[in-house]
Specification:
Order of helices and strands: HEEEHEHHHEEH
CATH superfamily of the largest domain: Glutaredoxin
CATH architecture of the largest domain: 3-Layer(aba) Sandwich
Strand content: 5-15%
Shape: globular
Number of domains: 2
CATH topology of the largest domain: Glutaredoxin
Number of helices: 6
Distance between the termini: 81 Å
Helix content: 40-55%
Largest sheet: 4 strands, mixed
Strand order of the largest sheet: 4-3-5-6
């Protein structure tokens, strides 16, 4: 009988704690479920986000180029021009391509006439100029815009992923100020300032770095080596 009353006493003492625990659990379950659902949704959104391999662009000869073919490669994407002070960089770009293409480097050039009309030729003329004067063998796309309403979608993506570039030293910063002042197509801070802006994309499709026109291909070699 005494044992019976002891059990009742224990029930009476423990019941409030059990109720508190139950209340806490009831409140935690929806919160944990909400966190789990949010994490799942975030992961799904990240999977659904555009990647460099989701894009297609028109090649120099008119055929569609699917960037899915470059998956697993190190990509350098650069807007080019034939009559620019930076045009000699074609030589450095081709040298890098020849040196590292067998290790997985792909360079893709997008000719653009948005900067002081320095790419006036047709796609055929551009390809011939690059071949004859600089021995270019890396892929060239059709002439396109990189800023504004008609910007190539892949450049809108690249600018979102890498919106800024570093101009080193007083000379570099002065060059940036000059280019920003004369680049009539620039509307946003992330817009391309001039020809030969370069983007490096690593093997998993992450846009790692953006380089200004004043950075030569040779100066990018260590960054490329680290990705190969």
């Amino acid at each position: 009988m005494m044992h019976f009353f002891q059990n009742i006493a224990c029930d009476i003492k423990e019941k409030p704690y059990i109720c508190i625990v139950n209340d806490i659990i009831k409140k935690l379950i929806p919160a944990v479920a909400a966190i789990f659902m949010a994490a799942t949704a975030l992961a799904q959104n990240q999977n659904d986000m555009a990647k460099i391999y989701d894009f297609k662009a028109q090649g120099n000869k008119g055929a569609e180029v699917d960037f899915a073919q470059f998956e697993g490669k190190v990509l350098m994407i650069v807007n080019t021009a034939s009559k620019c002070g930076f045009t000699p960089q074609y030589d450095g770009l081709e040298a890098l391509y020849q040196k590292y293409k067998d290790q997985g480097l792909v360079i893709v050039g997008f000719p653009c006439d948005q900067f002081a009309g320095q790419e006036p030729g047709s796609n055929e003329e551009i390809a011939e100029f690059c071949r004859i004067n600089h021995g270019v063998t890396f892929p060239l796309m059709a002439k396109t815009d990189v800023n504004g309403a008609n910007a190539e979608p892949i450049f809108e993506y690249l600018k979102t992923q890498a919106p800024t570039e570093e101009y080193k030293g007083l000379k570099g910063k002065a060059t940036r100020a000059m280019l920003k002042g004369i680049s009539k197509s620039v509307e946003k801070e992330s817009d391309i300032l001039w020809n030969f802006t370069k983007f490096l994309v690593n093997r998993d499709g992450t846009v790692v770095k953006r380089f200004p026109p004043v950075t030569t291909p040779e100066e990018m070699e260590k960054d490329i080596q680290s990705m190969l």
